[in-house]
Every structure is written in C-alpha cells, then in structure tokens.
C-alpha cells in the first residue's frame, strides 16, 4: 500500500535530492503537500524556504517522473511510505534530514515500539568478526529484538543471516534501488528478509549504487535503531560514520572488544576515547536498555549459541580474502566446557604486577582481581562503580595484557 501523497513526495525528492533537510521543512509548512505542488512557482517562491536553484529544479521536474516510479513499484509489489504518512517511523522523522519516501519490499516493523539494534562493521571481516556478528544477530533475534544493517558483505550480512537463523526480524537498508543487482551474493538473503522484515531504500527502483549513497544511507540505519553495535571497524570504515550519526541522534553506541588487527583500529579507538560502550556478549546490549520493550516471556529466553551451525557462519560472503585473525582479547561465546579443558593443567598462582603504572578505575579494578575468575557485576558492587566504568577499565587492562577473560563476563589476573 502506498501513502496517498507518495507521488508528490517522490517528485520533490527527484527535484531537490534524497537527503535534503528541506523535505522536513516543507512537511512542517504544508500538511497537504499537494497544495505545495499545485501552487507552482509562485507558491514555491513565497514559501521562503527554497533557493532559485531549487525552484528551477522543481519547475523542470515533471510529475510524470514520480508516476513512472510508482508504476515500477506496483509491478514489483513494493510499497512507498511517505514522510506525511501516519505509519512513517517517528524515530526517522526526528532526524535532521529524513527521506521524503521509503521504498519497501516486505513489511517495515514497528520500530517506534520495539527494541531495534543496528549492527555495522567492515566488509573485510575476519572469521572472528563474522562469527560474532552472526551470533549477536542470532541472540538478539531470539529475544525479539529487531536488527538493522546495510546488507553489505562481511559484518552486515552476517548480522542479517544470524537474525534470520533465529527466525527473527531484520531490516536491510540499501544504498541503491531495492531491486538493484548490486551484491548478488546476498540476493537470496534479501528475499528471505522480506518474509519477516523489510528491505528498504530511499532510492527508487533501478537506482545504481553511488559512493555517496552509502554515507547517506547510514543515517537511516542509525535513526531506525535504539543503539548501534560496531563489530570490526578500521580507522576509515563507513561503520564509524554510522556510529557518529547515532551519537548525534542521541543513540547508544557499542563496540565489540577485538584484538589489535587493522580491522579493529576504529572500534577499539572508540572504546578508548569513551564514545562507545565496550561489549563482550549480547547481554551487554540488552542490559543497557534495562529490558526495554521485552516481554516477560522474552526475558525467560535461553539462547543456545553452541547449537549454531558453523557451516552457516562460514557461508557468509566477505569482501576480499578472508583473513585469519590473531588471538582476540576476548574469545566471545567460547563454551565453558572448552575453557575448563584448557585450564585443567595446573598453573602457577597469578599475582599483581608491580612493574605497571595504573590510575583511576583501571587501578581500582586491577587491585580487586585475583587468580580466580570473578564476574564484572560483582566487581561493580564491590567498588560501587557503574558497570560501564568497570567494563571500560577491564578493556584497558586487557589491552595491557594484564587479565584473562572467560565466558559470562568473568575475569582474573593473568
């Protein structure tokens, strides 16, 4: 089903561009955008919000262009949701430059009334990044959380596929027309997404991808999300753009702990500077929202991550050659059984090192650690520190190679 005024908003976006803040301005001025269209140049000039260049572009853009786009959408079975539609997401409308229309294949979830998490990261993901993205997507899907990503190779599609494997709901935001053949490796995944979620774009059908489409697309991913998780991000990764946009929009930003490989330079830097909350498992994300939107039944969910098929994870397409990562700081989701086997051999008792200089929270956390694994929550209570400060300090200690990590957010002296 299309919004009643869809053709006028499509016409406007074709004339003024896809990510212009003038769309939101005009929405505020004209409860019925058809009035703006029918007023012609006189109305466009007198509204006082458009330049002469804008007016010239509106004049030379015929409404038939929009009508042709709507005809294409009808042939493909796509819906068109306009900014003045009551079903247009409020979280998207509230940003500086919301899209005039969304082209939708499938059914857009009610993101305003359910916990929605964006998962982003590098296309050149390591096996560590792919595995964790898949498993986080899977676990969130089991908890009824809607995931959002960009459908790219590597981290993006691993998150989508993990959520789908859990029979969960996910949204793929494309930087091209939703029927574009770009990234044909993920065509089957996109078809599956439409059965429980949606593939969406602000670009009409047939629109080919352009380099500037993807940074613009990222504002939609962050807007639809209550929080954004960075998984493996280089210094100049597009996922950092999404993280910046999320911060500007007042959203939570998380980053998965990683090793010192180039794939983690960007995400680790965000953790160190304090602009991203470090996470070690999916529960860190859920706990940050204090059970927001989750029902009693969903709170009782037990997620068996060990049952996930490795064949599914290994099938995730990655840009370039898959690289084998160095030993990660925290081996996310490693089973307690395998950890027990590793620790069966007797080891010398760990002691606090005196040759390292630590300050603040890092020093306090280090002092309470022993050679026995202890949970972060227990450390938080013992020191009367918020959990996020303990996690940040623990991350810094891990980077200094001073602690061991275990499943269940437990740590000990190294």
Name of the CATH first level of the largest domain: Alpha Beta
Number of strands: 12
Low-pLDDT regions: 322-348
Q: What is the tally of helical segments?
A: 19
Beta content comes to 5-15%
- Largest β sheet strand count, sense and barrel closure: 9 strands, mixed
**Biggest sheet strand line-up:** 1-2-6-5-4-3-7-8-9
Overall body shape: elongated
Instruction: Using the 3D structure, state the CATH architecture of the largest domain.
Output: 3-Layer(aba) Sandwich
Number of domains: 3
| Average pLDDT figure | 87
C-alpha end-to-end distance: 60 Å
Instruction: Give the oligomeric state.
Output: single chain
DSSP helix fraction: 40-55%
Q: Which structural class do the helices and strands define? A: alpha/beta
- Per the CATH scheme, the topology name of the largest domain is Rossmann fold
Radius of gyration: 24 Å
Describe the structure.
This protein is α/β, with parallel strands linked by helices and 414 residues long. 47% of the residues are buried. Helix 10 crosses helix 11. Strand 5, helix 9 and strand 6 form a beta-alpha-beta unit. The strands form two sheets. It has a nine-stranded mixed sheet with strand order 1-2-6-5-4-3-7-8-9, sandwiched between helices. The protein has a three-stranded antiparallel sheet with strand order 10-12-11. The N and C termini lie far apart (60 Å). The protein contains 19 helices and twelve strands. Helix content is 44%, strand content 12%. It has three domains: 70 residues, no CATH class; 204 residues, 3-Layer(aba) Sandwich (Rossmann fold), CATH 3.40.50; 78 residues, Orthogonal Bundle (Arc Repressor Mutant, subunit A), CATH 1.10.10. It is elongated.
């Amino acid at each position: 089903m299309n919004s009643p005024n869809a053709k006028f908003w499509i016409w406007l976006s074709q004339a003024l561009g896809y990510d212009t803040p003038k769309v939101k301005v005009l929405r505020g001025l004209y409860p019925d955008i058809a009035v703006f269209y029918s007023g012609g140049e006189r109305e466009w000039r007198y509204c006082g919000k458009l330049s002469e260049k804008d007016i010239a572009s509106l004049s030379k853009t015929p409404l038939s262009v929009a009508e042709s786009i709507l005809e294409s959408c009808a042939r493909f079975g796509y819906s068109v949701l306009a900014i003045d539609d009551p079903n247009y997401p409020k979280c998207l409308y509230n940003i500086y430059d919301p899209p005039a229309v969304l082209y939708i294949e499938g059914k857009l979830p009610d993101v305003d009334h359910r916990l929605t998490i964006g998962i982003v990261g590098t296309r050149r993901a390591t096996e560590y990044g792919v595995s964790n993205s898949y498993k986080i997507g899977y676990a969130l899907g089991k908890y009824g959380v809607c995931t959002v990503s960009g459908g790219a190779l590597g981290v993006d599609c691993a998150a989508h596929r993990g959520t789908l494997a859990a029979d969960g709901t996910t949204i793929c935001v494309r930087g091209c027309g939703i029927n574009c053949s770009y990234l044909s490796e993920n065509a089957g995944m996109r078809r599956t997404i439409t059965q429980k979620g949606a593939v969406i774009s602000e670009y009409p059908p047939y629109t080919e991808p352009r380099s500037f489409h993807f940074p613009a697309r990222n504002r939609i991913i962050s807007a639809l999300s209550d929080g954004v998780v960075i998984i493996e991000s280089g210094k100049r990764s597009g996922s950092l753009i999404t993280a910046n946009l999320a911060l500007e929009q007042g959203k939570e930003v998380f980053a998965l702990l990683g090793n010192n490989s180039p794939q983690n330079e960007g995400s680790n830097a965000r953790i160190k500077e304090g602009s991203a909350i470090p996470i070690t498992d999916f529960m860190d994300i859920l706990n940050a929202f204090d059970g927001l939107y989750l029902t009693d039944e969903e709170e009782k969910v037990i997620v068996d991550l060990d049952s996930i098929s490795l064949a599914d994870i290994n099938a995730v397409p990655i840009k370039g050659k898959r690289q084998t990562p160095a030993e990660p700081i925290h081996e996310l989701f490693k089973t307690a059984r395998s950890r027990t086997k590793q620790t069966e051999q007797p080891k010398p008792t760990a002691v606090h090192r005196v040759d390292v200089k630590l300050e603040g929270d890092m020093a306090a956390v280090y002092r309470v650690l022993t050679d026995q694994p202890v949970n972060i929550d227990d450390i938080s209570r013992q020191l009367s520190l918020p959990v996020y400060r303990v996690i940040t300090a623990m991350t810094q200690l891990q980077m200094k190679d001073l602690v061991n990590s275990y499943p269940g957010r437990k740590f000990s002296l190294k």
